[in-house]
Amino acid sequence: MAHIRFGLKNLRDVLNTVGGRSVSKRFLAQDAELKRTALYDFHLAEGAKMVPFAGWEMPVKYKGGITEEHLHVRQQVGIFDVSHMLQTRVEGKDRKEFMEKMVVTDIQALQDNQGTLTVFTNDQGGILDDLIINNTDKDYLYVVSNAGCADADLAHMKATEASFKKSGGDVKLSVIENALLAVQGPQMVSVLQPGVDFDLKNLPFMTTTEGKVFGVDGCRITRCGYTGEDGVEISVPQSGAEKLLASLLGSSQASVKLIGLGARDSLRLEAGLCLYGNDIDATTSPVEANLTWLVSKTRRQKLDFPGAEIIVDQIKKKPSKRRVGFVSSGAPIRGHAKIFSEDGSELIGETTSGCPSPSLKVNVSMGYVKTPFAKNGTKVKIEVRKKMIEGEVSKMPFVPSKYFILK
Amino acid sequence: MAASFARRAVFPTYRCLNGLTRYRQNVCHARYLSLSKNLQASQWFSKDHEWVTIDGQKGTVGISMYAQEKLGEIVYVELPEIGTKLDTEDVAGCLESVKAASDIVNPVPGTVTEVNGKLSDQPALVNSEPMKGGWLYKMDLKAGLKTDDLMDSAAYEEYLKSCD
């Protein structure tokens, strides 16, 4: 997901806020080229408030409020239309080697139908995007990356494809024009199980399979998500998207509701997950971003990914700054707040995103601090509107994750 | 104050919020005209969706129904300190929802005399009663106050049509 940035000047701005950016009426009127997902009409019928987001017209919330939608996902099941994300099919016998030209994770080591989170890096070790690569058993990699980076990601992959082919590599890229539905929440299994012909117990976290879902052919079901809850993302042909969504919403097994981008942001924050463009970007390395676990041992040895030497050096010597979480009370912390040492004497970093946590009823945020201050429990001061708020470095996720992981 | 009374005399429709048609507003106005002296004094709206009720030299400030709907559930309210002198368009405080923080933009000049203490425990009062129990702060208004840049409720209703 791309930016949702807050901290707005006044109500008028908030009211014109779209996907975090404040835009003028004129801009809205001119911006007729926004893309719409296959579910656009469905969203309107459900009372969605639509906003421009990463070049798409997307639901930020429905009839209820963001807090209500957020808690619904934690307690029942929520469905997000994430069709704006970039879905790519990577074929060819050298497809894994091809992806490893761009990412830090061992793709060769993935089992059939296993997936992994990873990052595209640049030569300076900065993150170009975060993405999920699934090694399907159908001779292709199924790749999902952020809508906000879609153009850049595609250009990056195509440029790499061209040079890779030139040196004799066998690879073929194509964009998958499917809709994508994220079905998230503790009751997900009871809602989805009646609609599939396999046992969801056999689809653990970060694995993928093809199949029919509620009678809709040609779906790809991947056990993953952006909320911290157990969930799946279903890639579905656009022609079947409405039917699938209606079947899920009509479940008699649990209360299933559509959820907008607003709650998506607060859910991912509670889950400690990064939002590209806010918490990670081209100026932060995976090590600084506390994503060192994505850099596979084999890849550290081979030093064969963009920025490898810088990244591996940071792993050995510790980076100068690190992404951590903060818990605080009082005024909510958002992105771009200055972080100081407990006595207020030293500027030690800046927050990258934050919100009042609907689940925890405290304020949660994340940001980068100088490494000596990155330890859990470290007391800090965070500046909000010229006042110093007391905060504490906290482990993430703030709300424990409920991923379905086989023991 | 002369200006405000003049405008009130021309468009005395502030009792008739919530999207009534002009025709119905007039009917409504006629019905309540005799009561209006005993009810609230004049009420005005800013382009930033704050309202101020002016009663002599006293003013009470809040946000409109439209604004609270757009902001969503308010979870934190930051109000000015008593004694703070605020000019028009000064940032008086902040309203925060899960999604966003938005400034309270002061609609008229004056000195803060009282803040709504209930909002520290019940910030969502701004949502449930934006025009009443969810008021934000009271002020001693600056002498010679003009309301030229503010809208009465009818004008504000018109303005809202350009806001969606």
SSE diagram, text form:
The complex is a heterodimer of chains A (407) and B (164).
Chain A: H1 11-15, E1 17-18, E2 21-22, H2 25-30, H3 40-45, E3 49-53, E4 56-61, H4 66-75, E5 77-81, E6 86-91, H5 95-100, E7 114-121, E8 127-135, E9 141-145, H6 150-166, E10 172-175, E11 179-184, H7 188-192, E12 208-213, E13 216-222, E14 231-236, H8 238-249, E15 256-258, H9 261-270, H10 297-302, H11 308-317, E16 321-328, E17 338-341, E18 347-356, E19 363-370, E20 379-384, E21 387-394
Parallel strand pairs in A: 5-15
Antiparallel strand pairs in A: 1-2, 3-4, 5-11, 6-9, 6-10, 7-8, 8-9, 11-14, 12-13, 13-14, 16-19, 16-21, 17-18, 17-20, 18-19, 20-21
Helix pairs in contact in A: 4-9
Chain B: H1 2-10, H2 22-36, E1 42-45, E2 50-55, E3 58-63, H3 65-71, E4 74-78, E5 85-86, E6 91-97, E7 101-105, E8 110-115, H4 118-121, H5 125-128, E9 137-141, H6 153-161
Antiparallel strand pairs in B: 1-2, 2-3, 3-9, 4-6, 5-8, 6-7, 8-9
Subcellular location (chain B): Mitochondrion
GO cellular component, one term (chain B): glycine cleavage complex
Family (chain B): Belongs to the GcvH family.
